[in-house]
Structures are given as structure tokens and as C-alpha cells.
């Protein structure tokens, strides 16, 4: 396992709970954290650099939770060595990197899975069930958002450095809600993307949140707010809105609204809460009604890690080479290109 930050620690806990998994090596640059996690989770081999971890004999899989610019180099090296790969979101900074990763997984005949943990929430799973049962009819419009008042993740760290991260909240948070939306909508093709990005608070030193990572002292180089309008095959549309910092009500909120021919739905998650987040809008005997399904929290990272291990153990790997994650990266790339060009980008005619 590479990476000792929030994402790496969360995956480490999840892997450690599974009976078929032995975590044999851990890598990360924070020496003290490395030692303490090694002791806590009884991981025998500890390394600072990912290259040294990949040289360990007898590995079956590697889990990547590093800054985004290292996703491709580590995954390519691991797949080249014949290892299965679980990679944190986003797949990569660009379509070029992501395509190389997917092609490497195909060539190696190994698994490349990306961590989209929010689609594993209980409310999302319950809503997906309602959609698959036809309760909403044909969904023709969707709006997804992830908006923070004051949540730039580590001002001056890798998140705000374009070279290291590939972008701001659009690639960081937007990729989660894009995944959630496309998953719920049944994976429609995105035909066009029109986006705008803004950097209004970050460059002036405002909006720095509590999630602090090691600072590199670099400038704020990415957007702090992005909005994108996506046309979907079959005539539907999806609006995405995401921000690390903007003047709005306090908090860290994400969610989705769906509008269908037979019903609607809304998930609103406030500061990562797990209860009372889902509403279904319908008619009961001709009277507008609102249903509040009771949903569990879901397993998040734990679900993704378990699925990864199950796929690896199952031996049927060819359908799990990161293709869905690459589609998300294509949309994010197109959104940045659209914002830069100031016009719509066509993905599929
Ligand atoms: N799925 C989620 O909910 C979620 C949440 C947070 C972050 N993430 C993703 O996880 C990844 C990591 O994010 P984070 O917040 O944990 O970051 P972080 O900065 O807290 O941790 C990054 C880790 O990578 C390690 N690292 C950097 N260079 C290395 C090298 N050369 N060799 C070995 N280790 C190296 C660092 O030492 C550190 O331990 C990002 O891609 C991010 O988008 C996902």
C-alpha cells in the first residue's frame, strides 16, 4: 500500500479487516506515520518510496493513495510487474495518462480498479434500487453538486499545484459526483460538455479548510469553483457544480437531484451525514407525495476494497481494467478544455 494520508489510512484499515488479505508492505514519505501505522497494522516491510515497495517479492496487488500525479507512474510500474492495482480517484490527471493505465491493465491481464467510495453510500444504493425498479421512469435531467464554503484541501500543498493534482475541485470532488450521477443514470454516454471554472478566493489566500496536507509553499494554481453542463445520449442533461471555497452557507455539502417521467429524487449530504439524506418525489393516488426511505450508511471505502479483493480472487479480470474511470476522466478533461476555450466540447456525436 502506497500513501499514508486520509485515503491511504482508510484503505489500509479496510484491507486489514479482510481475511484473505495480508498487507505486507507500506510506503509513504512521513517516517513517523509510516512507523506507527506499520506497528498498528503489523505490516512487516516499510519503505519511504513507492519504487522500493514495488521491488518486494511475492506481491499480488498494490493500492495507490498518493498525490494524483503519481497514480499513473505507480500503476504502470505495478501492472508491468503483473500486479493488480487499486487506485484512488481520480484515475489520473489527464486522458493520456488514464488511457495508458487502462491499456497497461488490458495488456497485463490484471485488475485496475478506481476508488469511487461515495457511490457505495447507503442512500445512493437505495436510490439506485428505486431507479432500477422503474420508480422514476425515464430520468431526463439531473443536477449534482459538491460545494464547500471553506474547504481548500491544503493551501500551497499538492492539491493546489496543477502539475501534482491535475486541477482543483472539478477533478477532486467533481469526479465523485460525476461518478455518482453516471452510475445512477445507468452509464449514459456524455455527448457534449460545456464548463466554466473560476479562481476567485484561493489565489487571494481565502477559503483554506481544516484538511491540511504538507505544504510545498506553491501558489494556488487551480480553480476553486467549476460548473459544467453535460448533454447525455438519449437527450438527457446533467449539471455539475463543485467548489472548494465560495461565499455560501457554511459546510461541506454534496448531493444529486434527479427528475424523471414518473418521479424525482434528491440526495443531500450535509457535512458527510448518513441519515435522512434521501427523498423520493412521486404521486400517491394523484396527490404529490414525498417518501423518506430509511437507508443505512453504506460501506464506502470498505465496499470498494472488498469488491477489489473479490474481483482479484474471482479470477475474471478482463472487465475490470479501469474503463469506467477513464470515461470520468474524459469528461473532466473535456470540461477543463471547454472552460479554457470558452465553448462546448463534443465528446461523442
Ligand atoms: N476516495 C476518497 O474519499 C478520497 C479522499 C481523500 C483523498 N483521495 C485521493 O487519494 C489520494 C491521496 O489523497 P490524500 O488526501 O490521502 O493525500 P495526502 O497528501 O494526505 O497523502 C499522500 C500520501 O502519498 C505519499 N507519497 C507522496 N509521494 C510519495 C512517494 N514518492 N513514494 C511513496 N509515497 C509517497 C505521501 O507521503 C502521503 O503519505 C489522492 O489521489 C486523492 O484524490 C480520495
TrEMBL record:
Name of the molecule in the record: Gfo/Idh/MocA family oxidoreductase
Query: In this protein, which residues make up the domain named GFO/IDH/MocA-like oxidoreductase?
Result: 125-265
Residues that span the membrane, as ranges = none
Domain of life, per UniProt, equals Bacteria
Residues forming the Gfo/Idh/MocA-like oxidoreductase N-terminal domain are 1-114
Cited InterPro entries = Gfo/Idh/MocA-like_OxRdtase_N (IPR000683), Gfo/Idh/MocA_Oxidoreductase (IPR052515), GFO_IDH_MocA-like_dom (IPR055170), NAD(P)-bd_dom_sf (IPR036291)
Gene3D superfamilies xrefs? Dihydrodipicolinate Reductase, domain 2, NAD(P)-binding Rossmann-like Domain
Q: Which Pfam families match?
A: GFO_IDH_MocA, GFO_IDH_MocA_C3
